[in-house]
Amino acid sequence: MIEQRVNTLLNNTSRAHLRRILVPVAAAAVVGVASLTGAGAASAHVTANSATVTQGGYGIVNLVVPNEEDVPTVSLRVSVPNLAGVRTEPMPGWKSQIIKDPATEEVTAVVWTADPGQGIPVGQFEEFRIQGGPFPEQETVALPAVQTYANGVTVDWSQPENADGSEPEHPAPTLTLAPSNGDHHGGAHGANDQADAQSDSSTSDTAARWLGGVGLLLGAIGAVVGVAALSRRGKKSGGSDDA
Asked: Is this prediction's pTM over 0.90?
């Protein structure tokens, strides 16, 4: 139906006139679609999230690390709140090391180091996952991180929230812990729940962006059809008056 109306307009409206209408509207539609597909890209901090860790319990923590330099990220160190045990997820191209307090044998940090020629490429991100606990019995836990680039530049993600509630330049990744559900063990079941939640969220977000883009494009076409039809009607009216 839309195609037929556009073809009719092309047959009854001068190409130059239609071009003057179509170009700015199409440009606006493209900008709108780009803004939808790029939503959320502005934030480039190291962040932490979990769908399984509870207050005082065990679970899986997902650390999202973007690359903000013109060279690869080759190392990441994340401090954890003295946990009894931590495991890391195998990652191709990376080696992990668990750091413990010699006196208590509690885990205080995890370090990932990229193999030679590997790392987080420019303009991309990587996810680092750990499983462990028990985490403190509190609502939020800071996980300070140090990100190292191939050129030797380091970024210390450890700043707390500013006194006025605004975000600092390099905020510490902060993990929000759900209230205890009585199960302090976590494990494979929790990992599956987290993966499902992340998949559902990603699918919904992608679908919403594409639907929004299609809506903008259809709206642009409708605007072209309406303006061109009014222009054509005006021309016919003017011709009748001259007669």
From this structure: no
Output 237 or 75, whichever has higher pLDDT.
Answer: 75
41 backbone dihedrals φ, ψ, rounded to 5°: -75, -15
Residue showing tokens 């709206």: 219
Q: Could you give the CA distance from residue 231 to residue 237 in angstroms, rounded to a whole number?
A: 10
Cβ-contact 52, 178 below 8 angstroms: no
Beta carbons of 60 and 191 less than 8 angstroms apart: yes
CA distance 148 to 78: 12
- In this predicted model, what pLDDT tens digit does every residue of 136-164 receive, in sequence order? 999 999 999 999 999 999 999 999 999 99
Would you say the C-alpha torsion 162, 62, 201, 180 has a positive or negative sign? negative
Q: Around Cβ 70, how many Cβ atoms within 10 Å? A: 11
Please return the burial class of 108, using the count of CB atoms within 10 Å of its CB with bins 0-12, 13-18 and 19+. middle
Residue 55: C-alpha distances to residues 12, 88, 143 (Å): 69, 20, 15
Candidates 4, 6, 1, 42; CA nearest to 26 is: 6
- Measured between alpha carbons, how far is 58 from 188 in angstroms, rounded to an integer? 11
Domains and CATH numbers, the chain: 2-38+205-237 (no CATH), 47-186 (2.60.40.2230)
b/e per residue, 111-148, with b = 16+ CB within 10 A? bbebeeeebbeeeeebebbbbbbbbeeeeebbbbbbbb
* Residue whose structure tokens are 């990229």: 114
pLDDT digits (tens, 9 = 90+) for 159-181: 999 999 899 999 999 999 999 87
